[in-house]
Amino acid sequence: MEFKLFLFLPIGMQVTVSYQKSLVIQTLRYHFISRREIKLMIILVNVFTTLAAVLFYFKKVTPLAFFISFFLWVILMLAFWKWLPSAIYKRTPTFKETFLVSLEENHLFLESEKGSKTWAWREFSEMIETPHFFHLYFNPRSFFLLPKDAFGDSEAIHEARAFLKSKIATR
Predict the structure, then answer these.
(1) Which structural domain range is residue 70 located in?
(2) Which one of 99, 126, 131, 159 has the fewest beta carbons within 10 angstroms of its own beta carbon?
(3) Angle at Cα 86 formed by Cα 84 and Cα 90, nearest 5°?
């Protein structure tokens, strides 16, 4: 799908938004891996697997113990790298729609064929910028992805970045 600039207004910005599956999956991976609790879990599993490998090398544990720790590591990596982002993409109808997003002085307005939704800027707790998206967080687990490509050129992306930073706290 192609992102395109819809219209710029002096008061706010309006863009037509649609999502590319590969970019959304990549961004969801970033979201999961950046969460503190998931980082901690990955570190602990890596330490556990490394310890099991060292103990296996010195013949202090059986091959089964090493295999189980390695299997746990593989399952964890697959879950956060492949399964979870794919499952969320499939379950979220927003990623399959095209809609109009208006960035206004007091709110963000979303409109599609199925309806509309308005959020006041105070409803967003923080904004994170990644290579392809602005992540507009409501809370640590709920967010709206705004594709940068929807804004067109780098100047429009810069204007959108400045506008969003003025309305939402950044990490």
Answers:
(1) 28-91
(2) 131
(3) 115
Q: Do both 43 and 81 map to the same domain? A: yes
Per-residue model confidence (pLDDT) at position 33: 87
Amino acid identity of residue 169, one-letter, is: A
* Strand, coil or helix: 168: coil
Mean pLDDT of the 14-33 span: 93
The overall average pLDDT reported for the chain is: 88
DSSP letter for each residue of 22-65: HHHHHHHHHHHHHSHHHHHHHHHHHHHHHHHHHHHHTTSS-HHH
Whether 80 and 33 share a structural domain = yes
- Considering the domain boundaries, does residue 23 fall inside one? no
Label residues 156-171 b or e (16+ Cβ within 10 Å = b): bbeebbeebeebbeee
Q: Are residues 34 and 87 in the same domain?
A: yes
Q: Does 37 fall in a domain? A: yes
Number of domains the chain is built from: 2
Alpha helices (runs of H) in 79-134, residue ranges in sequence order: 84-91
